Amino acid sequence: YIYVKIKRKEDIKKFLKNLIERGLDINDMLENMSFDERFNIYVRFDKRSLIEDNRIVVLYGDDTFHLKISIDGYGKSKESVTRFLVEYLKEISNL
Questions:
Q1: pLDDT of residue 75
Q2: Taking the mean position of all CA atoms in its chain, how far away is CA 29?
Q3: For residue range 58-95, what is the model confidence (pLDDT) as tens digits?
Q4: HEC states along the chain?
Q5: pLDDT digits (tens, 9 = 90+) for 46-66
Q6: Among the listed residues 45, 66, 47, the one whose alpha carbon sits nearest the alpha carbon of residue 2
Q7: What is the mean pLDDT of the chain?
Q8: Per-residue pLDDT reduced to its tens digit, 14-25
Q9: pTM for the whole thing?
């Protein structure tokens, strides 16, 4: 079990951009992500694809890496968090 918390904006941007460069499909992520009661986002990635092929594949299964994304803000809702994430991922994918 490894736990990593990334807080600096520049590091978060690098991490997410790295996922996109390795093939993260934003639409696939949106279809397969889940939320908790605080509207934190949870996504699972296939371990085998990442380790063997250096490729991100969103997968709902047991042999996965788990990613939790927490977005700070007041008045959070599933829709507002999703909208912010999509806009941010699109912005950094164009850099």
A1: 74
A2: 7
A3: 998 889 999 999 988 767 899 999 999 999 999 998 85
A4: CCCCCCCCHHHHHHHHHHHHHCCCCHHHHHHHCEECCCCCEEEEEEHHHHHHHCCCCECCCCCEEEEEECCCCCCCCHHHHHHHHHHHHHHHHCC
A5: 999 999 999 999 998 889 999
A6: 66
A7: 91
A8: 999 999 999 999
A9: 0.85
The Cα–Cα gap between 58 and 36 comes to 18
Closest-CA residue to 81 (of 29, 17, 35, 43): 35
Alpha-carbon span 77 to 52, nearest angstrom: 36
Specify whether the CB–CB gap between 71 and 87 falls below 8 A: no
Total residue count of the chain as it appears in this document: 95
Strands across the sheet containing 41-46: 34-35, 41-46, 64-69
Residue 78 token pair:
């599933």
- Burial bucket for residue 58 (CB in 10 Å: 0-12, 13-18, 19+): buried
